[in-house]
Amino acid sequence: METSERNIEANMNELIGRIEAKYEKMSKGQKRLAEYVKENYDKAVFLTAARLGEIVGVSESTVVRFATQLGYRGYSIQRMEVTYGRITQSEILETVLQSDIEKIKMTLSAIDHKAFNWAIDTLLEAKRIYVVGIRSCAPLASFMGFYLNLVCDNVITVNTNSSSEIFEQIIRIGEGDVIIGISFPRYSMRTLKALEFASKRKAKIITLTDSAHSPINIYSSCNLIARSDMASIVDSLVAPLSVVNALIVALCMKKQKEVVSTLETLEKIWGEYQVYSGEESSQEGGSAGTNESYRQNKGEE
To answer: What's the pTM?
Structure first.
């Protein structure tokens, strides 16, 4: 038996042994989790707490308490300890990338195309667009806000260090505005409160999250679902980023002339103020070639 196979068997036996030792003291929900994990070990260890709870029919907090009762410091730690023993160091790169590919495929097969198109139309009609994402979702919000600003007017990326700062930045939100809330397990209460505030102000709400059962969908007018579960302590945000990319590309296609004009203006500004070196400008901006491609595709002179 190879080392990786022995590790798999050892991890499985350890987990099942912990379950059997604690089984009698478990609640009904925890016992359902225990049965599922024992019968579906290979699947269970790759699931997030939210996804496992959804399958078994219990809350995410029940899953976390279940892991804690078994002696793990938290569900994410349990996943890391169990699943890292399943692959060798040389297999990590391929395993992670293949997992990301699967998340994109699952997202593509399940995403609501009507909701996606509604989101595009809503963003095009918005007076102001707010983008909010907390903690690990902050890079997604920053990326989305950066490119939305090149396509749409009045885009505000909410920078969040505290709850009070969020409300200070969205204080003027109201009817005719749109807020995009991005949240994945473990869901941020600050994002939820921001969407609640926006809902009371009659703003339209678009959410990007991992499940139809995500708490941030309570206030949303449009739910965009992207898979993020990953076999480690780090959740994958590759599929959510792909959805963000698709939204931005779709908006660009709707506003081609405005986007070309913006890029041409920026190119002049970058050159005038020496924002980039000559080589870096051609590589990073790429807008001169991009603009020419737009004009050729549209038959413009």
So the answer is: 0.68
Cis peptide before 65 (omega within 30 of 0): no
CA distance 124 to 108: 23
In the prediction, which pLDDT does 234 show? 67
Report which DSSP code applies to 154. Answer: S
Tally of CB atoms within 10 A around 189 = 13
Q: Which two tokens stand for residue 210?
A: 């991992």
Q: Average model confidence (pLDDT) for the chain?
A: 81
pLDDT band for 281, please (50, 70, 90 cuts): very low
Report which of 148, 101, 96 is spatially closest to residue 120, judged by C-alpha positions.
148
Taking Cα atoms as reference points, which of 78, 85, 61 lies closest to residue 19?
78
**Sequence-ordered list of residues with C-beta below 8 angstroms from that of 184, at least 6 positions apart, any chain:** 136, 137, 209, 210, 228, 235, 237, 240
The two structure tokens encoding residue 188: 């941020």
Distance CA 111, CA 224 (A): 7
